[in-house]
UniProtKB/TrEMBL annotation:
<feature type="domain" description="Dienelactone hydrolase">
    <location>
        <begin position="30"/>
        <end position="249"/>
    </location>
</feature>
<dbReference type="InterPro" id="IPR029058">
    <property type="entry name" value="AB_hydrolase_fold"/>
</dbReference>
<dbReference type="GO" id="GO:0016787">
    <property type="term" value="F:hydrolase activity"/>
</dbReference>
<dbReference type="InterPro" id="IPR002925">
    <property type="entry name" value="Dienelactn_hydro"/>
</dbReference>
<dbReference type="Pfam" id="PF01738">
    <property type="entry name" value="DLH"/>
</dbReference>
<protein>
    <recommendedName>
        <fullName>Dienelactone hydrolase domain-containing protein</fullName>
    </recommendedName>
</protein>
Length: 257
């Protein structure tokens, strides 16, 4: 794999302060959160699809979606887990692979067979209901896999950004054709140094535009759940977000196309 399966570090972190300003909504039968730019600050005909980590649509993710919207992008974050997201701080012996394969209780799986259609339905919703012409995808941890799967140069997703990815296969990286930006943590069992270097090699061989930025002194999950009371962690979180916005501005905006 180009990144390892999830581990307990994917559920550990800090809750950030702030009040979400977006709205809970439905996309077909899928629960979702939508954040809209303020009047006069909307980038026309572009949107961001936010594909979350295994905690689903928690407080911190909503705040990030709101920040993306504040930068002019209509932002949609679907529930990828059919209301079976994991709670924070799972036990050390939690079986992530079985949870992906079967879900809680054994009858609610979260494999590509279930998640791919959710992503595709949200892409269609943005095109059909909001008149979107270009879509950028943000993927954190689990969601990064689906950014890679949909970044194939076929017009479904036009640019991708992932932070501390998990569950991404080598074949999924080989299939990437659109521009991709990666924010990586120095201390990351799930996306360690050898996986970063392998990913770089595969992206180079795929001849797609890519960026990999490594943030020192932070661990897996830093882009979403870092301790913002620590200066280094706060800087890395904010810098990774600015990395994502700058990348999307360069690849999505009509005036730059």
């Amino acid at each position: 794999m180009a990144s390892n399966p999830a581990s307990r570090c994917c559920t550990v972190g800090y809750k950030h302060s702030g009040t979400p300003s977006g709205e809970n909504t439905k996309v077909g039968g899928i629960d979702a959160y939508i954040a809209k730019p303020s009047a006069g600050k909307t980038h026309s005909q572009v949107a961001i699809l936010y594909l979350s980590d295994i905690l689903g649509i928690p407080h911190n993710a909503k705040l990030i979606a709101d920040q993306i919207a504040a930068n002019g992008y209509l932002t949609l974050m679907p529930d990828l887990f059919n209301s079976d997201q994991l709670p924070p701080n799972v036990t050390e012996d939690f079986d992530f692979v079985t949870w992906i394969r079967e879900g809680t209780g054994g009858k609610n799986p979260h494999t590509t067979k279930e998640v791919d259609p959710i992503v595709r339905q949200c892409v269609d919703y943005l095109h059909n209901e909001h008149g979107v012409q270009k879509i950028g995808a943000f993927g954190y941890c689990f969601g990064a896999k689906y950014v890679c799967r949909f970044l194939k140069g076929d017009g479904l997703v036009d640019a991708g950004y992932v932070a501390h990815p998990s569950f991404v296969s080598e074949e999924e990286v080989k299939g990437i054709r659109g521009p991709l930006s990666i924010a990586a943590a120095e201390d990351d069992f799930v996306f360690p140094e050898e996986k970063r270097h392998l990913t770089e090699k595969l992206l180079r061989e795929a001849s797609c535009q890519y960026q990999i930025t490594l943030y020192s002194g932070v661990s897996h999950g830093f882009a979403v759940r870092a301790d913002l009371g620590k200066r280094g962690s706060k800087w890395a979180t904010e810098a990774a977000f600015l990395q994502a916005i700058d990348f999307m501005d360069s690849w999505l905006l009509v005036e730059n196309s």
